[in-house]
Amino acid sequence: MTEERDCYMEKTFLPNRASFDAHPERFLLQYDDLPKSSRKYWKQRYSLFSKFDEGVYMNKELWYSVTPEMVAIFIAKFIQACDPSVNTVLDVFSGGGGNTIQMARYFNKVIGVDMNEEHIYCTEKNSEIYGVMDKIELHLAMWPSGINVELLSKFQNEVDFVFASPPWGGPGYTANDSFDLTQLEPIPLADLLRSFFQISPNVCLFLPRNSNLDQLSQVTRDLCGETARCRVLYVHSEGYLKGIYAIWGEKFMPTNQYDTSMSSLDYSVENSEYSSSTVLDHRNSHEAMNTVESIVGSEY
Ligand SMILES: C[S@@+](CC[C@H](N)C(=O)[O-])C[C@H]1O[C@@H](n2cnc3c(N)ncnc32)[C@H](O)[C@@H]1O
């Protein structure tokens, strides 16, 4: 094992680690431990983590905010198929590791950042269950204010792709017809994207399904130029539209390697996931092409 690999395995400093270690029961919640409003998520536990029964760690917030496993596998495969040269992915807002873990199965290294130490701890535990801890480096930090010059420079040197699933403001994010991306937490969409483009031109955001696409178009033009494009993938799972992936970076636009190599990818139709897509370009055209882009299946 190389020195570099050893270093990924070093545990992140967490001020309350000893207390977390002493009370695993607070992360191994059962149906009766969940707040009544979150009990509806219990039946989705294997969709969140197929290895749930092996002792997956989640706190109350993660029960409703983790990216479901198939949705996370989908984007990891998509990124790799579009650009096989991607080596290191930065997962900002890494939560309980839903995306971090699946990215680590497809890429050599994943750097996760989250401001919540319970979430970092859960990601560590969960990545051990999935056997990918040696590919993951975690940072307890607030984005963007907690990213110092040294860390930013490290990310700029190492990272090929920035992925982020920012908070959607809790389960009530669909209360309005359109999700206002200027109100995105922790900072408005334009500022968030600007912080990511400092690191890489290749970016993906996991956003609410009712996100305002006009705002996405406008921000794309403002930050990347009049002819820039943003690709939007509508991700369905178990019959529901779970959210959209908004993607920037030329290698990830249609007519790239992914679109031509799809048939050669090893997808299973069981537990099918699929996504239709639209490209937001200078004509501000939102008509979904409605092409089925992928089918992915359970791998465990
Ligand atoms: C939707 S969850 C991410 C879910 C994650 N992709 C997963 O699958 O587990 C959003 C995460 O963002 C974190 N967060 C919110 N504001 C943050 C900030 N300013 N800096 C860093 N992390 C933040 C929260 O602690 C939470 O874990």
From TrEMBL:
Pfam family of the protein (one): Methyltransf_15
GO molecular function, one term: RNA cap trimethylguanosine synthase activity
Keyword Secreted on entry: no
Record keywords, A-Z: Methyltransferase, Transferase
Top-rank taxon: Eukaryota
Reaction catalyzed: a 5'-end (N(7)-methyl 5'-triphosphoguanosine)-ribonucleoside in snRNA + S-adenosyl-L-methionine = a 5'-end (N(2),N(7)-dimethyl 5'-triphosphoguanosine)-ribonucleoside in snRNA + S-adenosyl-L-homocysteine + H(+); a 5'-end (N(7)-methyl 5'-triphosphoguanosine)-ribonucleoside in snoRNA + S-adenosyl-L-methionine = a 5'-end (N(2),N(7)-dimethyl 5'-triphosphoguanosine)-ribonucleoside in snoRNA + S-adenosyl-L-homocysteine + H(+); a 5'-end (N(2),N(7)-dimethyl 5'-triphosphoguanosine)-ribonucleoside in snRNA + S-adenosyl-L-methionine = a 5'-end (N(2),N(2),N(7)-trimethyl 5'-triphosphoguanosine)-ribonucleoside in snRNA + S-adenosyl-L-homocysteine + H(+); a 5'-end (N(2),N(7)-dimethyl 5'-triphosphoguanosine)-ribonucleoside in snoRNA + S-adenosyl-L-methionine = a 5'-end (N(2),N(2),N(7)-trimethyl 5'-triphosphoguanosine)-ribonucleoside in snoRNA + S-adenosyl-L-homocysteine + H(+)
InterPro entries referenced in this protein's UniProt entry, alphabetically: RNA_cap_Gua-N2-MeTrfase (IPR019012), SAM-dependent_MTases_sf (IPR029063)
GO cellular component terms given for this protein: nucleus
The keyword Methyltransferase is assigned to this record: yes
Family as reported in the entry's similarity comment: Belongs to the methyltransferase superfamily. Trimethylguanosine synthase family.
Protein name according to UniProt: Trimethylguanosine synthase
Organism: Cyberlindnera jadinii (strain ATCC 18201 / CBS 1600 / BCRC 20928 / JCM 3617 / NBRC 0987 / NRRL Y-1542)
Lineage: Eukaryota, Fungi, Dikarya, Ascomycota, Saccharomycotina
